[in-house]
Each structure stands twice: as structure tokens, then as C-alpha cells.
Amino acid sequence: MKAVILSDNPASSDELKNAAGRYFNANKKKATLRIFSDPKTFFKYMETFPGDCGVLILDMSGENRAIEIARRVNSEYPSVMIIFIASPSTDASDISGAFVYLLTKPVDELSFARAIESVESARLTTAREETDTVSLGEKDSVYKINTNQIVYMESLERKIYIHLENKPEIEIKGKLSDMEQLLAPRENFIRVHQSYIVNMDKISRISGSNIQLITKEIINIPRKRLSEVTRAFYAYTGSKS
Hints:
Layout: E1 2-7, H1 10-26, E2 32-36, H2 39-48, E3 55-59, H3 63-76, E4 81-86, E5 101-104, H4 109-131, E6 133-137, E7 142-146, E8 150-156, E9 159-164, E10 167-173, H5 176-183, E11 189-193, E12 196-199, E13 203-207, E14 210-213, E15 218-220, H6 223-240
Parallel strand pairs: 1-2, 1-3, 3-4, 4-5
Antiparallel strand pairs: 6-7, 8-9, 8-12, 9-10, 11-12, 13-14, 14-15
């Protein structure tokens, strides 16, 4: 984890530094921790090393000033998770959308540890979502799709219909072979038919030569692919159990 403390209170900065150090040591986490007291210096550093801050622990005097800093970080560096340390009188709605975790002063060790755990979890979730996202479409219409939401893809008359879970289907021009290649790094997709690619996480069962999806739809497996598809499905579900 790459963490930064931005605080204009030397005593508070030292307390946060020590608390973070104890947390990282106790949990055997590899981490770097940088400390800034001046927002201008912090943002100058971020311009030079934008990937060098994963978590920002923000404790600044002047609530409005701190909120503006948080909102700027949120806007310019959206991947940075923020722990916003506020006074008891702070209205959380005032900083809605500008922080990930709100801590109210005085901050005890347990609350601080929970805050770090929470933002770390959020950061990992965001990273996974970005990894699972693909961009599909033509020049004028590009769709960013989380592959976990894809139930299956269907090719029909030089068009591809992407069927999503609990969302409207997406129609794009293209070849199913191109989609197969795009999804190849993800082990949960399999081409079960000349016209279909299926997300194996969305299969409720295979009965005979039929795939029943969680959406209750049925896709028939051609005889020549049946053995291959069945083996792949049970190998995949077995590896997840």
C-alpha cells in the first residue's frame, strides 16, 4: 500500500504516522508512507508521481479547505481512496462524494485500523472492476462493460447481441471470433456454439445437450461440442469449489 498523510497539525501528523506504522507492522503489510503539511507541495508531488498515492489520510484545519482538497483529489486522482478526518460538528452530507471513509475526532487506534481496512478493500474492489471491464462498440458508440455482468453473447446477421444480467442487451457490429479472442484471458467464458459465447458463472446447469442459464434461457450445445463444453464447465466449477 502507498499511503500519504496530509496534515497541517504536527502533533496529529505524528500520531497518524505512528498509528499507521503500528497497523502495517501488526498486519505484516508492505507499505510506504509519505507525509505532507502543505497541500501545494502535496499536489506538486502528485503531478510528478501520480501513482505514488493509493490512500490519502486527510487531516487539515479548516473544514472547507479540507473538503476542497478532498474534492480535488477525488476529481483529479479518482483511484486514490481518502480517509477524511473531521471534527464532531462536521455534517457528513457536506463532503458526500469527496471521501471514502469518514473518521471523527478524536481518532482511536481501532477506528483508524478499520478505516485503513475499509479503504484498502475498496481500492482492491475498484482494481478488480477495472480489470474486468472491456470496451466494445464502434467509433460513435463505445460501451464499457463489466464482464461479470455478461450472461452470454449471441451472433446474428453480422451483429453481436450482448445479453447482460438485469440490464438491457447491447447490440454492436462485429465478429464473435473477435469477442472470443477479447475474452480469452478470462477463464469463465466459453464458446459453446458457432453463434454463442457463454459466461460459465451464469450457467445454472447442463442437462443433456442444453445449457440452462440463470436467466432461465436455454442454449443448445451442438453434438460435436458437447463433450468439450461439458468437460470445460465441470473443470471450471470444480476449480472454484
